[in-house]
Design brief:
Blueprint lengths: L6 H8 L9 E2 L22 E6 L5 E11 L5 E14 L2 E5 L12 H6 L5 E3 L3 H10 L4 E3 L20 E5 L17 H16 L3 E5 L2 H4 L1 E4 L2 E4 L10 H6 L4 H8 L6 E2 L3 H6 L15 E4 L2 E9 L6 E9 L2 E8 L7 E7 L5 E7 L8 H10 L7 H13 L5 E3 L5 E3 L2 E4 L2 E4 L5
Parallel strand pairs: 6-7, 6-8, 8-9, 16-19
Antiparallel strand pairs: 1-4, 2-3, 3-4, 4-5, 9-12, 10-11, 13-14, 14-15, 16-17, 17-18, 20-21, 21-22
Amino acid sequence: MFSPLTPEEAAKAGSPKKATPSKTPIVPVPADTPVLQFKHPKHGEPGRAWPYHDAAGHLVGYVCRWDFTNAEGQKDKEVLPVTYCDLGNGKRAWRSKGIPSPRPLFDLPGILGRADAPVLICEGEKTRDAASILFPDMVATTPAHGAKSPHLTDFGPCAGRVVVIATDFDEPGRTNDKGKPLHPGQDFADKVCELARAAGAKQVLHLRPDRLGTWIWRDGEKIERDGPLPDGWDLADAIEEGWTEPAVAAVKIDTGFFTPYLDAEARGEAKPEPTPEAAPDGWPFRLAWNGVERRIEKSDKETGVIRVEWRWFCSRLEVIAETRSADGEEWGRLLRLVDRDGRVKQWAMPMSMLAGDGTAYRERLFSLGLVIAPGRAPRDALHEYIATARPDERARCVGRLGWQGKGYVRFNGTVGGQDNG
């Protein structure tokens, strides 16, 4: 049955929709452009505005931030890009519009001007500002819009450079509405790692949040945090918790402070990290996803309290099997490692190489891409780790291709039955 429109509905339906004004960013911003003038419809003028420049130092736009208290009484923020736009009909003004891609990294002139400095990439401008204070020996930067769209940024200036990715902390166990794990910091870092490698970065390292977040400063004393890291913890929080450049410099001398970045593929091929309690018979080693750590016990001289630390000494290295020949000789270790490019490799190391000072097997591990902390203590830890590991698996090593017992050994596998591993 036909139902006529009410007069109000008819008036609304007959009203032509207003066309949305065009906003075309003008890049670079003309020299005679008025200073930034932009107000958020709800929050007014921005609390902070970070200027982005191209390689020649010309302004291309801003990223602005508003901090406020939301309806639930909680601290909240909003971050928007603001560019100088052509609005049509001869009008120009500052508007909320993204910087056209490819976007420059923040402080691009600084990156280009310090060609020998490592590039420290953070998630967001506020964190980047904190990084520049805590790590002045590096040039700190961020892609515009943080984790939302790093692929729209040009990472070309990372070519030939050491890149360090500083990740925010993701609270374990968080999921989205479909039950999938939420790892915004890790997802951001994986994408940045991929982009930096594609641009030709010499090395991609990782600054894990727990490197500083495990500790806070109170009355000039570094004390261990009571409880887990808060979700979203970053380097800006580190400054609020008392970290300073001299304090960072004192802990940064640890050669395991920065570790090779493992992307999603490398993490997937590595075994889950055992907990310290999972170590058999008090074995003082554990696998972390970024490498191998040794248990160190320190006694407080005043209180006598023993504090346990896990100290990194080499990048990811697993002893996955014991090897031997068919007649039970030529014992060895089947090692699996992750190199600086995140590639997984295996090597059957003869145990006889442990008889000397270890130079021969370390040379081979170095050539495969393992990263070992300098100094005697890390070398001794590596030697003990390989020598005392007791993997569950056994494997047989042969000196030639062809028939070996009931199986035929090829260069890429075995055909037929096998004689007891």
